[in-house]
DNA sequence: CGCAATCTGTAATTTAATTACAAGATATCC
DNA sequence: GGATATCTTGTAATTAAATTACAGATTGCG
């Protein structure tokens, strides 16, 4: 695991002085790797052994080894750490933090995603007679987005963010239909019902949701995205971005599977939009 | 430039002993970063100062600094680059590429985003009597998402993805109202009209769109996201994720500006959802 | 062949990091 | 509420590492 993330994660297990060290390092990681233990100790206003103990607590052999790990973490150019927004953050701070948290979330999602499941989902989708996307609340916009994408593929697609419509649609589903249920927590009761109903009617149910959730249990195929997120106070952000990227991936897999002939269709859809838009050349350069 | 590449490139300008050092390092770079200068000197069968001179020749301050650079080179072969999906890509390939492209897009967005504009947008939004989010096509789902977020703030929010409704809503806007128009290209004619109408009716119009686009010209305040994207063949992906992150940032700025008392309200909204969900404890662990 | 320039290693010096230990703070138990 | 135990933290001593200065060796060139 990334050392920077590790620091953030274990900030609670630190002692007072160790936290001072952590703060200084997180504030200027780039400076840290070029500092001696003495300089860092001074910056954090603690003694040198404290810095050393801090390094050891992070499972490194000592300060030099810690710097090595830190250097590797910083190598990407940017430390994608899930830093939480604080009360007193200014615009620069919270903007940076949200970008970074989102990127960090995507990074973990990328590592944890089950490619086999994606591949099977693409299989199922390409063979679907009809595709339905269902989501509620924040996940509704993800469902809309999915509809917008798959709609271009010349496949029957529906999308409902209304429980009653979802229910009716689920009841009317039949073999060969694919229902995609989207929920970050996987604990939305109504959506679980929908999934169950759809499956009873022989539809294939794909869940974009948390592994091991009630919704997951109702699905034929689960695409889980374990994205760490602080939902205590604010609203789902990173998880929803990860869901969208997953939709992008499914859509891409879909077009690739359908072959090149099919992709001409996409161009056609794109061209049809031209009339509703101003010409590009008038405004670029 | 990457230190490893640098070593390879300048192998000709090395002296005999220095080349021995280079060979050892290139053969086991991973070991090198965990070795002392003495150990490395022994492996290369040269003296310690020779190793030191070698490091300096590579424009590093000395051996420890060299190890830092080496560590960074080893950390990540491929930073997040915008790699395009190819015809013959398998699931692993396109999944990785889409994740990376999205992250690369967020990275550039982060660097280019105008913090001042964000701050002013937050200003405007916190003082709004009513907030409207308008988007069409792919941007409609972004607008929905924005509505979902700002709705929790106990502010009058509307969101339309229907031109007629948007038009009516725009005509009815008044001073103190804020209209947010979302469009990646900024060339959607209908949305430009809406922006113009809203402004004629004294609303403040925020555009989440391309800088210098027709839509941007109609807006009071533009939040531009120049995200490189390959829209030739497929559909907007990265740009829409960037838009969502921007919405997240605005929402976060909003809550922070409103102060802590206000955030209790968010908890209330969250708690109200509890009834519609299965209990968490039943399914974790 | 001999001088000059460059390279390389040894030993001394400096700097940095680590360890051992003691004082102080904090929690816990009667 | 006081005494004991545990955990933190810092000072000083020790050790290890890196760097520098210098001298011997090697190579190139006239």
Automatic annotation (TrEMBL), chains A, B:
GO-annotated biological processes: carbohydrate derivative metabolic process
Record-linked CDD domains: SIS_RpiR
The record, for Pfam families, names:
HTH_6 (PF01418), SIS (PF01380)
Which intervals hold domain HTH rpiR-type? 1-77
Q: Tell me, what is one Gene Ontology molecular-function annotation carried by this entry?
A: carbohydrate derivative binding
Q: Does the keyword Transcription regulation apply?
A: yes
Q: Which Gene3D superfamilies match?
A: Glucose-6-phosphate isomerase like protein, domain 1 (3.40.50.10490), Winged helix-like DNA-binding domain superfamily/Winged helix DNA-binding domain (1.10.10.10)
Q: Where is the SIS domain?
A: 121-260
Q: Does the keyword Metal-binding apply?
A: no
Keywords, ordered alphabetically: DNA-binding, Transcription, Transcription regulation
- Classification via InterPro entries: Homeodomain-like_sf, HTH_RpiR, RpiR-like, RpiR-like_SIS, SIS_dom, SIS_dom_sf, WH-like_DNA-bd_sf
Name-wise, this protein is HTH-type transcriptional regulator hexR
Protein source organism: Rheinheimera nanhaiensis E407-8
